[in-house]
Amino acid sequence: MGGLALRGVSKRFGDTLVLDNVSLTIGENEFLVVLGPSGCGKSTLLRVIAGLESIDDGEIEIAGRRVDQLPPGQRGVAMVFQSYALYPHMTVRDNMAFGLRNAKMGGAEIDRRIGEAARMLEIEQFLDRKPANLSGGQRQRVAIGRAIVKQPKLFMFDEPLSNLDAALRGRTRQEIAGLHRRMRTAMIFVTHDQTEAMTLADRIVVMNRRRIEQSGTPFEIYSKPATAFVATFVGSPAMNIISVRRIGSNGPFQMVGLGDEAVIETRIPIAALPKDGALRVGLRPEGIALCAPESGDAKGIVEFVEFLGDKTHVYVSLAGGEKIVTLDSAHSTMRIGDTTGIKFDGSTAHLFDAADRCHHRVS
Amino acid sequence: MRPIAGAWRGTRGSEARSGLFFVAPYLAVFAILLVYPLFSGIYLSLHKADLFGGSQFIGLENYFRLFRDDVFLASVSNTCYFVALTVPALTFAGLGLALALNNGRRWSAIARGLFFSSSVLSVTIVTLVWRMVLIPDGGLIANLLHAFGLPPIPFLSDAHLATPAIAITTIWWCIGLPMMLFLAALQQVPQDLYEAAALDNAGPWRTLWSITLPSIQRTALVVVVVETILQFQLFGQAQIMTLGGPDNASLPIVLFIYQVGFQRWDIGYAAAASEILFCIILVAAMTQFFATRGRESGGS
Q1: What does the alpha-carbon distance between residue A151 and residue A99 come to, in Å, rounded to a whole number?
Q2: Which residues on chain A are in Cβ contact (under 8 Å) with B203?
């Protein structure tokens, strides 16, 4: 039996609350990614699970056993640090064996586990080297190997890819995904990078200001964000969120108006919305199209163009002063200062009410 | 590689000349106060000379005489004994204090200041204070022993106790520097190494032995080498507390040199003893240095 359960966990540093009544569960073989901006509490969450910080309230269970009073070495967890935290004066072999020797494991079993992990991670030829003589990617694999040999109930990764270059990050992401398939153990991966979150996770927990904003699959997080924060944090470029006014209905669905001219026909039932209060519409860049100025729902002036090779981001300022970003093809002819038409795909629109709850379209 | 002849021309040459002007004052001081006395001392040690100007070249006779001089040999033995007492004690005590005081608590900051404060005192004050502690006639320890009905102990006039008494005084006086060096080294050890060790189920002693000590071994080498060099040059404490007695039992090499050179005026002989002291310190320091370097590179 594996997995993790946190119930009502809170943590303070002095008068500063850094975790506020956090509850979550992870299944036995689940890959959970904790995603959030700097300072949201995600690393602190990892550290209280590992036992590197105590908790002020709540309970922590790992594999069905309560662990919040146990020291780190007795919780059955292994952690890969952002800085790898390899012991610089020990060889790779000794780094991997250190925890096993502390657990009074026999030499033959230690050698077997190290050999197996080294083969899996392709670091056999580095076993007698010291970390200073390894590249960043090799150290990364040694750090993972040190975690693997302990055969923990829970793997934890604290932004392990942030020190790698882009190419190596992509390769290492695939290796970590492959590792999860082979190990079939619960994993928690903390990151501020949404690409890592979306590509690795079975489930994503988005944190903001010490609280969990939303927990869901990558698809749910992206297509049904619970709050404006989740909607803007996940997705690049961020979702466009603009203030609108209610202007009627299209059958059971709410219609909203933007500026003087634009009308957006959403697929969000009026009955699901609060009866009054301000509304904001959320549209991802792919839900907004560029067209000829006279044939769009609204007009705007191009303020900035970003060419990315396979696509182009076009930043437009609408007549009412709202700023939006949309996608155009790789062959975009948009230039700064051009006047363009904007078409809104209302069927992909979300509505945010005054309480910052997000209402989604019906399927 | 640029030819040396061209190194002083052009922009690079201008930079080299500017660099030379910046280091010239220090080089001058170094040459006058260190290099010149070193070679001057070697020259003097090959002469029978006194402070009034007369000198006669005698080759290595001063050195042969030193190796036949029981007082000099006793001073070498006393000094080596003193170094063996003080250097390990300063190293381990300094490390122990640093480990105990390496935390952010307020009392630790106060204690660090207290332990370092003895280092800023002059040798005269230190030795006078400890004389008042050690003397059998009304000293602090004598009064404590008297309170328990015990006879006083003549620390400074007992041949077996004089050197250890000076060693204790020196340890009390000099503990600040090793403590601060070790504190600085401990604070450079990345915290996540300790966290990784905690996750590896390492207890406090295992962490100390396997993580902390290997991480600060270079600083430990610095402490041992620096303290060896310093303690081989023992002078003030012996001069003030015992005058090298009783019966040369606590006579260190530098006090021997002082007595020979500035009381008996035999400066050629004193210079020869200085050169031998220089060689002893050099050998001791280099042995420690290369022994530790060998251990480090063997493990790489």
Answers
A1: 11
A2: 102
pLDDT tens readout for residues A124-133: 999 999 999 9
In this structure, the answer to whether residues A170 and A313 fall within a common structural domain is: no
- Identify the H or E element spanning A244: strand A240-250
The count of structural domains within chain A is 2
Phi-psi group of B201: left, alpha or beta (phi > 0 → left; psi -120 to 50 → alpha; rest → beta): left
Of B196, B201, B202, the CB nearest to A81: B196
Same domain, A47 and A76: yes
B96 HSE (CA, 13 A, CB side): 7
Interface pTM, i.e. ipTM = 0.84
CA distance, residue B210 to nearest chain A CA (Å): 9
* Cα B88 to Cα A249, B91, B228, distances in angstroms: 87, 5, 9
Min mean pLDDT across A123-127, A186-190, B285-289 is at B285-289
- Domain extent at residue A99: 4-233
Q: What angle, rounded to 10 degrees, do the helices at B140-147 and B123-134 form?
A: 20
Task: Count other C-beta atoms under 10 Å from residue A112's C-beta.
Answer: 12
Render pLDDT for A288-338 as a digit per residue (tens, 0 to 9).
999 999 888 899 999 999 999 999 999 999 988 899 999 999 999 999 999
Q: Which of A89, A144, A149 to mutate to test the interface with B (most CBs of B within 10 A)?
A: A89
CA closest to A158 among chain B residues: B192
Fold category of B61-291 in CATH: MetI-like fold (1.10.3720)
Contacts of B300 in chain A (CB under 8 A): 130, 133
